[in-house]
Amino acid sequence: MIDVTLESVSKRFPRAGDTAAVDDVDLRIGAGEFFTLLGPSGCGKTTTLRMVAGFYFPSSGRIRFGAEDVTNRPPNKRDTGMVFQNYALFPHLSVAQNVAYGLKIRKVGRAESTRRIEEALGQVHLAGYGDRRIDQLSGGQQQRVALARALVIRPRTLLLDEPLSNLDAKLREETRVEIRRIQKDSGTTALYVTHDQAEAMAMSDRIAVMESGRVRQVGTPQEIYHRPATAFVARFIGRSNVLDLPVVAADAERVTVALPGGWEVPVAAPADHGLAAGATALVSVRPEHIALTSATAEGALTGRVTELEFTGMATNLLVDVAGEPVQVAAIDVPAGLGVGDQVGLRLPPERMWVVGA
User: How does 113-124 read in b/e, with b if 16+ C-beta sit within 10 Å?
Assistant: First the structure.
C-alpha cells in the first residue's frame, strides 16, 4: 500500500490554447484508500488519472507515490495497474495469456506466473477460465479479466477509468460490489474515475468532485451529499433544490433565511460563509427531505403541482412555489393528487445547508 499525492498539478494541451484541462489540483489519496474522481464529461478527471498513470506529464506541479517523485517517470516505471473503459484485452489470446501479459513484460518466471495467474483469476471469481477465449466471455467476465490483469502484477496503485460504463445496469451494480471487495481484500490503493454519482457514492472511501478542471470538493460520500460545498456539487450529487433566499440574520455557524410566505428558519452554514443580513443565500435541500402537507398548514410553503411521476420507490413531484420550481420525492402521496393541485411543503431546517455559488 502507498499514498498518492498531487501537488498543484495542472495540464494544458497545445490544441486547447490557454485553457487548462486540469487546473491547480491538490489531492492526497491515503494508502489503501478507494478514492474516486467524479464529474461530468470534460471536467478533467480522466486527464488527472492519466497523469497519475504516466500517460500524460503535468504542465506544472508534482506527483508523488509515497516519498517518491514520479512526475516525469514513464508508465512502466510507476508500478501501477490500469483498467481501461474498453478493457483493452487481446482477442487472439486466452484469458490466462491476457492476465499474464504484465508478468511476461516483467520477466516473471513460469512457475511464479502460473501461481499468480491462478490467484488473480480466483480473486475475480474466474477460477478455471484460463483456457477460454475472450470472445467466449460476457461483458462482465471480460471486465473481470481486465481487473485480474491489473492485479496480477501486484501494483502499488490500481487505476480504473470508467470500467463499468459498458455494462448494463444490473451487471454494473453486481460488478461494483466485486471491485470494492477485491480492492479491500488486496489492500491496494485505488483511484477510480466515473461520471456516475451512484457508483461513486456506493464504492468510495472519499470522492473528489471536479468541474472545469478544478476540484470543487473532497470528502466522504456522506459529507458531499449532506454538506455540498457549492451549488454545482449539490446539483450534481443526486438531486437537490438550490434556493435563493434572503438573509435575515447570520452568525458563524447559522444563517437565518426568509422562505416564501414570510417564514424564517435558521440554516446550518460553513464557517466561512461570509453572509450578513440583507444578502442572498444559496440554500440546498434534497427532494426526499421535503414533506408534503396541507396547503393551509402553518409554517408550510404553498405551491401548485406542475409535474408528477411515479417511480415505484417514490413519487417525484415538481411544485411551483411563488415562481420557484421545487423538487419533491415523496413516499406517501395523498390519493388523487394530480397536476394543478395545491399542496403544502414543509422544509426541515435541520436538513438545509448553505452552499457557495
Answer: beebbbebbebb
Query: How far is Cα 185 from Cα 158, in angstroms, rounded to an integer?
Result: 13
Question: What is the widest separation between alpha-carbon atoms in the chain?
Answer: 78
> Is domain 239-355 in CATH 2.40.50.140, yes or no?
yes
pLDDT tens for each residue of 95-113: 999 999 989 888 899 999 9
* pLDDT digits 0-9 by tens, 322-343: 999 999 999 989 888 999 999 9
Domain 4-229 class in CATH: alpha beta
> What does pTM read for this prediction?
0.91
What is the dihedral angle through the alpha carbons of 180, 185, 189, 195, rounded to the nearest 10 degrees?
-10
CA–CA separation, 25 and 46 (whole Å): 13
Q: How many other CB atoms are found less than 10 A from the CB of residue 247?
A: 21
**How far apart are alpha carbons 88 and 26 in whole angstroms?**
30
For the chain, the structural domain boundaries read: 4-229, 239-355
Measure the CA–CA gap between 52 and 155, rounded to whole angstroms. Answer: 13
Are 355 and 230 contacting, i.e. CB atoms less than 8 angstroms apart?
A: yes
